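Weekly sync notes, structure subgroup
Attendees: PM, AL, DS (notes)

Item 1: joint prediction request from the bench team. They want all two components modeled as one assembly rather than separately. Inputs as received:
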Amino acid sequence: MTPPPETAGFKFNHTMLRVKDPKVSLKFYTEVLGMELVSESKFSDFTLYFLAFDHSDGKETVEEKHANRLNREGILELTHNHGTEDDSNFQGYASGNTDPGRGFGHIAISTPDIEAACERLESLGVPFKKRLTDGKMKNIAFALDPDGYWIELVPQRMAQHP
Amino acid sequence: MTPPPETAGFKFNHTMLRVKDPKVSLKFYTEVLGMELVSESKFSDFTLYFLAFDHSDGKETVEEKHANRLNREGILELTHNHGTEDDSNFQGYASGNTDPGRGFGHIAISTPDIEAACERLESLGVPFKKRLTDGKMKNIAFALDPDGYWIELVPQRMAQHP
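Output from the run, pasted for the record:
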């Protein structure tokens, strides 16, 4: 089926997840996963952080990335409701993968070298829900972000099966 | 901060949401929002549907879209656990926006003409959580998908503020 002409140019711009502590989450998504902060919007009660991978080989400037943030795909929006990071009564957010609260499943990062990516994450102390060697599917893994959201790691090219 | 070199080439490939009835969801994401089905994986208990917008002006073939599905951004994975569509006891999935189950917030589609996009969705009977005219932010809207997940609609270029 051809998409309706009225949807021409539509893009799947971003996915939003709430996070308890932006310092911890920003460190994880930038220093561990390699995203960059392209936009930040602070409101009285909450702050929004928009992150994305650079696909310009470092050629785009910070200003260009900011200007282009709505006209691309692959943006991750992290919402911080102020105060959760210091609230000892805060229960944490639901991963979406257990009842009650099942619905959302995961975000996925595709990598040129899945083995190297998983080894590096493991060496950095990132917890895993499923390692490459666990279970039947040996070409995907699930790591956990600081809030417990599942992050699938997938290869960019599937191995050819005989 | 420059991203770690080990993360070069990483892409935010997809976001996964569980859906109750794939017939209803596929119709919504293709006929209403304009995505295309680029891959489908059927297992004994569940089926995975991978959807994405075409950004090739219709030039890429179905085979090319399938082959490229892991090496791009902006893929939406819908997981159907077989049987939910006919199960009168099935409670539905959590949107992620109410307790218990708060965490995931929404996915967002950016559009060249936000007014036209919202008018069309409204004329097709899509329910809205927030219309363009509701609340303070007049340039974004939130529609609801068939499972009640929030879909933000955003412009691709922000209006210049005086």
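Discussion: Strands of chain B lie at 11-18, 36-42, 46-52, 75-81, 104-111, 128-130, 141-144, 150-155.
Action: AL to compare against the crosslinking data before next sync.
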